[in-house]
Design a protein that fits this description.
about 120 residues; alpha+beta; three-stranded antiparallel β-sheet; 5 helices; about 20% strand
Length: about 120
């Protein structure tokens, strides 16, 4: 199984703020985006054995070449699509959230932000 971490590292102050909003908004809806980092525990509890985890660093922005630019754009588009959710759970206006998204886009050029992709494998005994 492959899962994206959703935990953005080294992204700058605007990305850190937007990232916290994303995590808090999903938590308010009962979705723990940070659970991906402990899926191996869930796999063990489900009875799987020979579990292995591989972790790959995925760059966001120009420093990651074409893939990094595409990845950053995908995240920006997802954020923009979910602004109504963030506004409803945070109490922050849509306009402020849109401005924050613009700041994040500018910061993407100045910081080497990244996420991790996890690849989990296991088998039934």
């Amino acid at each position: 199984m492959t899962e994206l971490s959703c935990i953005i590292k080294d992204g700058g102050p605007a990305r850190s703020k937007s990232h916290k909003l994303v995590i808090d908004s999903f938590n308010a809806c009962g979705v723990n985006l940070e659970a991906v980092e402990i899926l191996d525990d869930y796999m063990r509890k489900a009875g799987l054995v020979d579990i292995s985890v591989q972790k790959f660093k995925l760059p966001l922005g120009d420093w990651g070449g074409n893939a990094g630019r595409l990845f950053a754009k995908n995240i920006q588009e997802a954020y923009a699509t979910l602004i109504p959710l963030y506004a409803s759970t945070s109490g922050i206006s849509r306009k402020e959230l849109e401005q924050l998204a613009e700041q994040v886009e500018v910061e993407t050029k100045d910081y080497n932000a990244y996420e991790y992709l996890y690849v989990y494998t296991g088998r039934k005994p």
